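Researcher: I'd like a structural prediction for the single chain below. Treat it as a standalone chain; there are no partners to consider.
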Amino acid sequence: MLKIGFSPSFLKKLKKIKRKQPELFSQISSQLHIFQINPKHPSLRLHKLAGGQQEFWSISVSMSYRLLFYYVSENQEISVVFFAVGKHEEVYD
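Model: Treating it as a single chain, here is the predicted structure.
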């Protein structure tokens, strides 16, 4: 199973979402669970970013919310770190 980590800023934003938007938090949790089991699941709409963000990847929570992450490789083990969560226009700045 894929190892997943979270940046401090991601966790802070997620905590705020959990408090203010519990339904969105539930959707995010569900997508993270799916990602951990099958990172290529079609519902995630996984894609690599371009331009100045070409080292990052994105998965969809809904039509407007995205989760951004990057891959980390240590000791022949691959993991990911989620660092941004937000609406499309917020995370792709």
